[in-house]
């Protein structure tokens, strides 16, 4: 029903615009013109009432377009009424009534009223609204960057979520668009006032000439008739125009309102009752001046004094009432149920010592909030998951220069930063070491030095890699996110990713969920991928693969292995060196046979059992090969058969979590693979 009404309203707007344009060309009967003039007045009052009741300007964001349409409608009515006045010397009952009743039957009075209304609209309301709209548009555009930064800061601090931030950004953009449109739309009102004045003079002069030369009116009758109709036409046009001009002024001047206009005026004007005693005394004093009418002054003074007394008395009672009302609230705070808010755990936190606060505070030049924003975007691009907000807070219990990274309330990593110092790391090419405070780079555990800013150039010339404190912290945070991303991916986050895919690939989602797999099962597969550093950005391929294999088995490890094989091209690209070669350590076939036997026994007994001496031999040999590859600058990659990949990965992850274990099916056929060693054991 609502959708149908929306379609009808869209069609109605198109029809109304076409009819308005048609009015400029086709003569209208006087009865139809009466109805249209009445509608014009009704619309003007409705717009004025709407602007007085909205709390924010954006609640009436269609106003600039509506202003254009009403102006066009009013000008079309002016053209139609002018046509009737000049041709028939009769423009309907509404115009005649405005000309005779409002003007009191006196053409001079009517003309003076028309001029006064025009001056009020053109010189006061329209000009003021135009200036306010112009300034508001400029200030709104100037404030956009600051508002965007404030939104990003709240998002990074965890005060708002991604959807809330998106809505606030959209509101900032809409606000800028609205005031920009109002700046231009206010020109319509100004032009409408000028057009009304010109049309009035054209009607008087043209009507006088036509009446005297073509219709046989006497000069006096022609002047009286056409003046009456023209003044009525001018008044019936200017009154709605004045209402809409007033609405324009009200809308653009409501910059910091908290409620509708009536509530704001009442609350703010009556906030200080004592001033009304002074006002009452001044009015009574004017009534005592000789020659002044005493009755109106004394009556108004009495009313104002009563208002002041009434407001003052209520305000004196309000603190007690507030105290009485505040007691239950205080009791509510002491109830144990309200402690539930303290039980909520942030997905990710960064706690800093007080000396590191300048890194976060934008007023002190800190840009850590911006860096966190970039980290979250980088994570979305690289890993394919939306990182939850990272709450940054100071912790007075920490060392002043320390920081702690927590995931779900548990400390994952920590580090220490010396403000105003730089971290210098030796990439292996430094010939002449510089002096500094020895430390360890927190992200990768490399030896480093803290050096002063004066030593920075010297260290860079010597070959050190020098980074500033915010970069050290941001790099550490990035590495923690990459290595623990699987802990941050819950069912809710997976559901959001699936909803995003469903917008364009609904078939695979509907086939897979919930008939073949639940959201929780898909989440476990994605977690398995992230644990080994495989991005889940290609979610469509992942879901397609799961839809192919889920009917055959519910083993999530088996499904994960199939997904990995479907992502072979992506995995191959990840492990290729700059020269395009993949350098790997292969697993001896005899060792693979042992692992397959262990797998079979594990399925039968339900437990993993292997000779500890054999495990130690594997660790020793693998450790030697990893050390050799790392020394040569290669990433440690182990290649084995698909049947034992998962088992070998579980076996070696305790030795080094960063080891990449691949199967032959996870590397594309055209890739160039070089073996630099073999993992084997002596039996």
In short:
The chain is α/β, with parallel strands linked by helices and 683 residues long. 63% of the residues lie in helices and 9% in strands.
Textual characterization of the structure:
The protein has a four-stranded mixed beta sheet, covered by helices on one side. A four-stranded antiparallel beta sheet has the order 6-7-5-8. Strand 10, helix 22 (645-652) and strand 11 (660-663) form a beta-alpha-beta unit. It folds into five domains: 17-254, no CATH class; 284-322, no CATH class; 348-486, Glutaredoxin; 489-566, Helicase, Ruva Protein, domain 3; 575-683, 3-Layer(aba) Sandwich (Rossmann fold), CATH 3.40.50.12790. It is built from 22 helices and twelve strands. The chain is an alpha/beta fold. It starts with a helix and ends with a strand. Helix 3 runs parallel beside helix 6 (162-213), helix 5 runs parallel beside helix 7 and helix 5 (107-156) packs across helix 11.
Helices and strands in order, then pairings?
Layout: H1 2-23, H2 30-53, H3 63-88, H4 93-102, H5 107-156, H6 162-213, H7 219-253, H8 261-269, H9 274-288, H10 294-334, E1 348-352, H11 368-383, E2 390-394, E3 402-407, E4 410-416, E5 421-425, E6 437-440, E7 447-452, H12 456-462, E8 465-467, H13 469-483, H14 491-502, H15 506-512, H16 519-531, H17 539-549, H18 556-566, H19 568-575, E9 581-587, H20 589-605, H21 612-631, E10 637-640, H22 645-652, E11 660-663, E12 672-679
Helix pairs in contact: 1-3, 2-3, 2-7, 3-6, 3-7, 4-7, 5-6, 5-7, 5-11, 6-7, 9-10, 11-13, 15-17, 16-18, 17-18
């Amino acid at each position: 029903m609502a959708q149908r009404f929306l379609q009808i309203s869209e069609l109605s707007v198109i029809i109304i615009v076409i009819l308005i344009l048609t009015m400029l060309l086709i003569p209208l009967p006087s009865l139809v013109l009466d109805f249209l003039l009445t509608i014009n007045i009704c619309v003007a009052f409705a717009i004025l009432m709407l602007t007085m009741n909205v709390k924010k300007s954006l609640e009436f964001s269609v106003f600039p377009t509506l202003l254009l349409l009403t102006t066009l409608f009013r000008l079309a009515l002016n053209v139609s009424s002018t046509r009737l006045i000049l041709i028939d010397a009769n423009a309907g009952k509404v115009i005649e009534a405005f000309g005779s009743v409002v003007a009191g039957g006196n053409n001079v009075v009517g003309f003076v009223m028309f001029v006064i209304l025009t001056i009020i609209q053109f010189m006061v309301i329209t000009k003021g609204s135009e200036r306010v709209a112009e300034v508001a548009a400029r200030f709104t555009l100037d404030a956009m960057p600051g508002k965007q930064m404030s939104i990003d800061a709240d998002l990074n601090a965890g005060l708002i979520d991604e959807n809330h931030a998106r809505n606030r950004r959209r509101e900032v953009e809409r606000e800028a668009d609205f005031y920009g449109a109002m700046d231009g739309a206010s020109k319509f009102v100004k032009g409408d006032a000028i057009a009304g004045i010109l049309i009035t003079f054209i009607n008087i002069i043209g009507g006088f000439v036509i009446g005297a030369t073509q219709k046989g009116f006497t000069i006096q009758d022609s002047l009286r008739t056409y003046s009456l109709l023209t003044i009525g036409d001018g008044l019936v046009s200017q009154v709605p125009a004045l209402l809409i001009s007033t609405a324009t002024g009200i809308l653009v001047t409501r910059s910091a309102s908290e409620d509708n206009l009536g509530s704001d005026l009442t609350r703010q004007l009556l906030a200080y009752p004592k001033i009304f005693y002074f006002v009452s005394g001044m009015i009574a004093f004017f009534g005592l001046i000789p020659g002044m009418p005493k009755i109106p002054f004394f009556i108004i003074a009495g009313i104002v004094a009563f208002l002041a007394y009434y407001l003052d008395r209520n305000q004196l009672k309000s603190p007690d009432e507030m105290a009485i009302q505040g007691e239950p609230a205080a009791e509510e705070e002491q109830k144990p149920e309200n402690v539930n808010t303290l039980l909520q755990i942030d997905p990710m936190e960064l706690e800093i010592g007080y000396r590191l606060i300048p890194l976060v505070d934008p007023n002190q030049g800190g840009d850590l909030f911006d860096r966190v924003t970039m980290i979250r975007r980088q994570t979305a691009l690289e890993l394919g998951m939306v990182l939850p907000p990272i709450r940054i807070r100071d912790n007075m219990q920490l060392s002043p220069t320390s920081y702690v990274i927590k995931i779900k309330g548990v400390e994952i990593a920590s580090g220490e930063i010396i403000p105003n110092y730089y971290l210098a790391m030796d990439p292996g090419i430094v010939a002449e070491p510089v002096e500094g405070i020895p430390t360890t780079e927190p992200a990768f555990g490399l030896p480093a030095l803290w050096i002063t800013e004066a030593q920075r150039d010297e260290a860079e010339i010597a070959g050190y890699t020098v980074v500033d404190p915010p970069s050290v912290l941001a790099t550490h945070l990035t590495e923690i996110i990459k290595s623990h991303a699987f802990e941050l991916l819950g069912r809710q986050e997976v559901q959001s990713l699936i909803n995003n895919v469903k917008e364009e690939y609904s078939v695979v989602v509907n086939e897979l969920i919930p008939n073949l797999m639940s959201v929780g099962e898909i989440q476990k597969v994605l977690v398995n991928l992230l644990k080994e550093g495989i991005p889940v950005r290609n979610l469509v391929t992942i879901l397609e693969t799961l839809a192919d294999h889920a009917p055959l088995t519910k083993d999530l490890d088996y499904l994960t292995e199939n997904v990995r094989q479907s992502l072979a091209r992506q995995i191959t690209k990840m492990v290729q060196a700059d020269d395009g070669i993949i350098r790997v350590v292969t697993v001896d076939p005899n060792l693979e046979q042992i692992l397959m036997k262990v797998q079979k026994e594990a399925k039968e007994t339900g437990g993993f059992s292997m000779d500890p001496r054999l495990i130690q031999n594997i660790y020793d040999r693998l450790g030697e090969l990893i050390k050799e590859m790392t020394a040569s600058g290669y990433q440690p990659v182990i290649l084995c058969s698909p049947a034992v990949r998962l088992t070998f990965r579980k076996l070696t992850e305790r030795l080094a979590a960063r080891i990449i274990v691949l199967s032959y099916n996870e590397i594309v056929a055209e890739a160039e693979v070089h073996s630099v060693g073999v993992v084997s054991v002596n039996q």
